[in-house]
């Protein structure tokens, strides 16, 4: 049976469906609580960080158009150990996205204003999902999974429909709220009022407010690489188009949110005192635009469901692809022949998502964990892409940018800074969760008779050392990022930039043709370039 492949339009819609999720429903509100009106800059910085990182992955994705590609590249260039760290961190971040989208939908439900919906008010208490709300979250996760269970074709039809709706509602919200009452004074009348919480807060908001999380979903395109038509062209195009569209929408939503808050409310409680359960819907109700509020409550289902469905597909393929590295059970890598879906991986992720949301019941906490673990995985991308140019210069490269020698270290620096912005102790907590996966790695290495373990550990020493150094810098960092203030702002940034460039060079020069490289060669042989 011929596999159903995704064309450019469907791939862009899939990416947008993943990118425009709960981030637009809560991100603007969360960002202004941290940075005030300067949160606009946070969204721009977040876009620059993710766009720069994505630039590196476009070359990798077109070289190796494979299912779950994000978890493969590092093991080609640095062996099983770095490959496992990258895959484990990336899978953890994707796994967390599934419940966070369900949490977003349930949180909006909890603020339904109608008398017949009073029963939904029990779903949220003190910013946390309650036990009754948890049952509804589980139901959402089940729906996300079932929509992926029966084929890419079903996913394609669902994604095309839902993505158009998800783009339309934010745009309608922007236009309606701007026309209904815009207050330029909310942006401040001086540098001090534009930056009410200082300039460091602008950078902190990028990680802790869900901004990195909101842009992160470009990797859906990478992880669906083998199912995309003409991947040598469409992977790069889909990532570029989807990030451009989503960046404009997110920045305009932030401008709209800041300008729509009532000046009297702002004067009374300040940006950090505004307590919305459903930010844009609450503003619409305060402005008397009830039809928009209803539409937003509907979209609070549609946007998270679209993102949740897309990420269930992506996360399952990442987990399935990890089996090729022989460090998770092989059963997880089996695809259903008829529907081309990794059903065991889908069910496994569903169960683990439910466990995770039972422990972490806050949207903002989940968003911060996702951002940090994702960025740790992204550290390996710039290193791997330049390492491949070093150890395998003759591989086919449908996209070969002359700017990569600059963009790769630049992306590594930005990812390092964004990890630091997540603040202590989140940095050490996420690194700790990644380290928890090490026993599984060594268990499967033992089963393989320690085939290449010595070389893999040697090639991965830079990565482990860097995680330790990042944790130490976070601990001694400036008070603005919850550190002990031994390093003062902005000198902490300078230290991270210098240290990250050292570790970047170490990482690139630690590469070798690992035992997994033969698989990379086979995939690359079938790649088409502009010359073909």
UniProtKB/TrEMBL annotation:
Keywords of the record: Membrane, Transmembrane, Transmembrane helix
Domain of life: Bacteria
Localization: Membrane
Molecular function (Gene Ontology), one example: transmembrane transporter activity
Membrane-spanning intervals of the chain: 7-26, 38-60, 81-109, 129-149, 161-182, 194-218, 238-259, 279-298, 344-363, 369-391, 403-422, 428-444, 456-477, 489-507
GO cellular component annotations of the record: membrane
Pfam (any one): AA_permease_2
Alphabetized PANTHER family for the sequence: ASPARTATE-PROTON SYMPORTER (PTHR47547:SF1), PTHR47547
Protein's recorded name: Amino acid transporter
